Amino acid sequence: MTDRTMENSPQVYARIGGVLYLMIIALGMFAEGFVDAKLIVSGDATATAGNIIAAQPLWRLGTAANMLVVLCAVPLLLIEYVLLRPVSRNLALLAVMFNLVSLAVEAISKLFLFSVMAALENADYLTAFEPRQLHALAFLAYKSHGVAFNIALIFFGCTCVINGYLIFTSRYLPRFVGVLMQIAGVSYLTACFAALFLPAFFELISPGILLLPFIGESSFCLWLLVKGVDVREWGNAREAQLST
Fold first, then answer.
1. What is the radius of gyration, based on Cα positions, of the chain?
2. Domain map (residue ranges) of the chain
């Protein structure tokens, strides 16, 4: 498909974006909602290490799912830019810049997930450290991934706020989706700053506050899949932008 055809068919972008977003949500739920919930024991490095060693294929699947999330998010970033730039090219570009930083940090954070298995199965480590020390190192790697992921989500929260505003003012996407995306962004910012700097407060608001980003992102995902964009309004917005 040529670039000209794609430019004149925003629905193509919308459908592909919806599929990518659905994959990101599904993979994230599997990695964090299933694998982590099944294997990670809060505050117990030895029990966590035992679970991971006993279910290595599952842990590796979870790590692969985490990597696929980042891979799917890169083309989705481009699609969101193409769909939303008729509203404001500068704001859409700003959202892309925040998202790029978020994805860069998130990609680097996955190194810590690989470090978990390296600490538990590397023969050199097994001879140099006691089992409890290795368990602590593996648990530290997992916790470090969480810290880096929270930092990444702070930048992504900014992306959600900007994209939510662009959706709200677009006229070719529903305003309620824009509001929900902005709420999702503020929720990410609140939850991640709390997790990093106010852990006691985070314990009070979690996991309830994390439901809001799920609702916001799911609404955008499903709308792109089922309805897409109002092609006429998207075209009008694009023509108005080109004429200025």
1. 20
2. 10-243
